[in-house]
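In response to reviewer comment 3 from the previous cycle, which asked for concrete evidence that the modeling workflow produces usable outputs, we include below a single protein chain processed end to end. The sequence was submitted unchanged, and the resulting structure tokens are shown without manual editing.
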Amino acid sequence: MLTIKQRQANLQFLGYYKGQIDGIVGALTKQAYRNFQKDYGLVIDGIYGVKTNAKLIEVIKEEQIKLGVKVDGIVGPITINARDDKNVSLAWNDIKYFKKSEFNCKCGCGLNNIDLKLVKILNEIREYFGKPCIVTSGCRCQKYNDSLRGSIKNSKHVQGKAADIWINGIRKAELLSKCKDYVRCGRANYTYTNESNMKNAVHIEI
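The workflow returned the following structure tokens.
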């Protein structure tokens, strides 16, 4: 049997639940149960029983198969992000705070293969802190990447899926903590910083 929070997350994903994921069976949760039961031919009683549980898991599994993610019948960050990535088509017009040129390879070769999904995250970080977000390293050609101390051969910078950023007046630890939020929710794969060659910058990649 799904926990209350798992039920709420599943029903929210399907558009039935409009409240907070709080683990409390209130009026909105019970209404979501009823609406789901009505649409799937179940007894409409607002009670989350075995049949409602089985059907909800079944429906979510079908959605996960379509999205190509782990099929477990439980909606988490990966399922949500897969849906969002599928439904949202990004363009530079959707980016408020950055220009594409800010991500050009620093060697002057002109390479710029930056992934807009990463730029969208940086845009949100800029919005969150309310201060300009400086890109110290964006796209890198392989030659330039190999010339940098501490860089790895298969760097995400070469793929356009990483950026090093800093925000004047914001502690590096605070910026890193915010970037870690994106890793925890599945929108970013990795983030880190160090004292040896990154100074005040934080690396984030998707």
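The CA atoms of residues 3 and 12 lie 14 Å apart. We consider this sufficient to address the reviewer's concern, and the full set will be provided in the supplementary archive.
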